[in-house]
Amino acid sequence: MKSAVYESFGAPENVLRATERDRPIPGPGQALVRMRLSPVHNHDLMTIAGQYGLKPSLPAVPGTEAVGVVEALGEGVESLAVGQRVAGGAQETWAEFYLADAARVVPVPDSVDDETACQLVSMPLSAKMLLDTLEVTAGDWIALNAANGAVGKLVSQYGAEKGIKVLGLVRRAEAVDEMAALGFSSVVATEGEGWQEKVRALTGGAPIVRGIESLGGDGASQLASILADGAQLVSFGAMTGRPLKLSAGDLLFRGITVKGFWGARPPVKPERIGELLGELVRDAAAGTLKLPIEKAYGIDEVAEAARASGEPGRKGKIAIRGS
């Protein structure tokens, strides 16, 4: 079978290539899945670069989530059927076939398109788990940067459903209009002077008690500047690849605390994850959860897919196309 592979850590567009490998055989509790579409996530690219919290043994096949069709079942799997379309987290998904833990994938209704199904777990589930752990209630204000990213939009959407008020920060003024067209009105661009005053006007001066930081570098200090004293800043990502930049005064004199969130080590109980996954499938089937793909690349084009994923201004994820 055809598969993407990397034999050393480095810039993904330089180290990724396509190769031929043996088709894996499902073991007990596993399903062999023929991959249809697998997204290129930031954490996938960080793993290939050797910058993520988990480092696989080399050579390695990338990919952590996909939608596909069950080809064969391992011993003891009764929850799935051959020919069934399934989505969920797995490993080595940038290949024509991959193995999935049967307990970690979910059947996908026909009403859910492949583009949404292949992204059903990583970002939406993280957004729901994050909101579960923020310890905020209806009426509270939270803020996040990279608001026009997939997770930013999902946190805004799911937060609003809970009555939580979400303020989004974006880097470009054009992105404010783009977000407004999607129905997100509480968005401020950080380019130029006076953007903090726009924040205060939107919130009416109400305290912002949580900040979700996905940029790293100066993004952390920007976000901290609009948080209330005693607020909590949650490090969710590091899109710039730079360390968090925070002043000692924010921590010492304003009492702002910092914690990290990593979906690979879920902060909620397993049974709650099952409940949240059920909610996501229902949302997708009802059409309230739509996750677009900007462009899909074949496995032979995996290096080009990695390069395209880093381009700004995309309207959706880049994905790897299977069969």
From TrEMBL:
What is any Pfam family matched here? ADH_zinc_N
Question: Which species is listed as the source?
Answer: Devosia oryzisoli
Q: What is this protein called?
A: Zinc-binding dehydrogenase
Record's keyword terms, sorted: NADP, Oxidoreductase
User: What's one GO MF term for it?
Assistant: oxidoreductase activity, acting on NAD(P)H
Where is each Enoyl reductase (ER) domain found?
Answer: 10-320
InterPro entries linked to this entry: ADH-like_C, ADH-like_N, ER, GroES-like_sf, NAD(P)-bd_dom_sf
Q: Which CDD domains match?
A: ETR_like_2
Gene3D superfamilies assigned to the protein according to its UniProt record, in alphabetical order: Medium-chain alcohol dehydrogenases, catalytic domain (3.90.180.10), NAD(P)-binding Rossmann-like Domain (3.40.50.720)
Keyword Heme tagged:
no
Q: Which SMART domains match?
A: PKS_ER
